[in-house]
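Troubleshooting log. The previous run stalled partway through. Resubmitting the same two chains, unchanged.
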Amino acid sequence: MIVIRDLRVDYDRLCAVQDLTLSVAPGEVCGLIGPNGAGKTTVMRAILGLVEPTYGSITVAGVDMRERPRDGFRHIGFMPDQPPLYDDLTCWEFLDLFAASYGVPSASRDGACHAALERVGLSAKANTLTIELSRGMRQRLMIAKTLLPDPEVIILDEPASGIDPQGRSDLKNMVRELARRGRAVLVSSHILTELQEMCTSVAIMERGRMVVSGPVGDVSRHVMGTTVYTARILAGGETFLRLLESDGRAGVPAEEADGVRFAYAGTTADAADLLTRLVQAGVRVAAFGPRESGLEEIFLKVGARELS
Amino acid sequence: MALLIDNPIIIKHIRARLRPAQAMPGAVALFCLAATLTWLAFASQPADGQGGGFVFGLLLCLLALVLVVLGSEQVATAVSVARETGILDFHRISPLPPAEVALGFFLGAPIREACYAALLVPFLAATAILAGIPWTSLFDLVATVVFVALLVHAWQLLAALVSRRPRASTRGILLLVFLALGFGASAMRDGSVASISAPTYFGLPLPRALFVGLHTVAATIFLLVAATRQMRDQRAALLSKWQALACLTTVATLAVGSLWMAEPTIALVALLTVVVATGVFCGMPVAVTTGEYLKGVRRARRLGRSAAPPLDDAAASGVAVAGLCLVAVAAAAILGLRLAADWQAWAWPFSIGLLVIATHGFARQYYRLRDGSQGDLLCNLTLFLIWVLPLPLAAAWSASGLDGWTGNFLWEVTPWAGMTQAVIAKAGGAVGGPWPSLFVTGLTTLVFGVLQVRQAAIARREAGAPGPV
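Second attempt completed without errors. Output:
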């Protein structure tokens, strides 16, 4: 749905993005992360045509954005962190403006705008000037505007900043729902825990380059190396430690609040065998399984490696 | 028309700016004021036959104030707010063509002022009848105000899109407008509008309104073209190289056509002024910055070339500047051949004029390639030092009673003095002009021409592209 190949973007003498390749498939929610100045916003602006790339190709829903940008824009919904609205329009008029801009036929425009307001719970505010809306309501109106033309690709830049927990939860559900309906979503955020909850893939940028990208699990294994397991032992702790020691693939165990953590270089089947041996040896195991590495952990590890 | 019908931006402005609660108070106030003035004109009619004319002038001022000053203020404000809040980017990334967005702001933002202006027209007509002003003059004056308003709106639109402090872009407008208003009002009092001979274009007599419209609409279109480019891409140059050439060609054609029947000396001096000023103006957008040039080189490298094609947006401006000079030469030759038997005698001032266009174009390109957009400051400073500073220095030198030769030399090295003296010499029947001026302007053209070629080669090396040094 979004395919970027060999993208390079320069601002005067500064190379902001270099030889970047990224693709986001239908139904995928890709989290674009990186430190400040990594080039995330530049990538998003290049997809949106707000920055002219030096070279490279950007295709959105099969449309070459450099050849036919206006056709491509029909397929893109964009939501920035600060929702800019026309303060002198009502909510309905604001949506109608953009519905007309996206070529929604005038006969169905009124219905489409009311449906969009209904979807974000702003039906009662249809005739209210946008200047009278709270921050959260403005964000919801922006969501309605973004989804109004039913875009195939949605780009969200720090979408959760400034909205309340309920709003964040709604946003998360909305993103999941969009992915379920086959939309490609590219989202950038500094709140990595939140990204983790909605992203199916991740792309980590550093100094204008793509460091690593792919499904969260693959990136995690690629970056973190061995898988970390957590076990909660109710009884037989000494036997557990002895069996771990005898298994050459297990690392040194460490006590944690919720159990024992240890690195394990074996496959999932090897780990299952280990669990069987523990149970057969009389160890009472309450919980045993691989611990998913958080995006924050992955990001910090990648960042540290790149910066070094 | 497709850009105007169902234009969402115009509809947006109609909704936002014509809400009765906001639009009515102004309309009522204006109606009352205009009605009072008209009644005054009617009441004073038996005693003073000029009363209608004076009130007509006042109402014309009011019309221009509403349409030109307040209207253009609205265009600037609407674009500035949209730019500052970031909503302009939403229009940039919508399927709406940039030209439609630009026209939407251009015609939509001053919609309330346009309605107010329409409200004034019946009162203008009534006072025109009272003052015995012919309908043709009324039409000419109202049309002129409308054309000037469109031109100023387009200028404000562009200024708000490119200015670093968009909201401060309305300065200077008042002066322009009140000059026009002063003309309108005084013309009504002494009836001088009717006495001005009908303008011609390539010898063809034109109604005044059409003549004014021809010139202002051409300028408005090029301002809108530049605004459309800015709507598409905030970092784009105001005009492409082809558009800059088209701009100078259009201005030169209009100037030649308008001066076709004029007295030769006045016509050629006017053409020289217009063509050189426009040539210098068109030399600005065609000069690329380092970043854009490097971008063009990197793109070209991937296609197996060393730099972008000469008239590409990312190419250095050498060929485009040469093209501008060519257009200026063509305009001078056409008008010279038409008006003056000894048109070759005009070669001197026109040569200096062409070198001014070339020096400016090459210098701007050199500094932009060297220092990016910061290079404009250094370019302006350099041109000030070689073109302007010698003038006050020469005056000071002469006034101080020091040797006259140095004072004269300082005066004669500037192209302005060169062109002026050549024109004066021509009027006196002589041919030629001051050599220092021609020599210095030619030398600066050569120096900056070489420097810009050298700087382009340095930039190509920076991009790792092959190319001659």
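Takeaways: The interface with chain B takes residues 8, 10-13, 48-52, 54-55, 70-71, 73-74, 76, 78, 80, 82, 84-86, 88-89, 93, 97-98, 100-103, 106 of chain A (CB under 8 Å). The mean pLDDT of chain A is 87.
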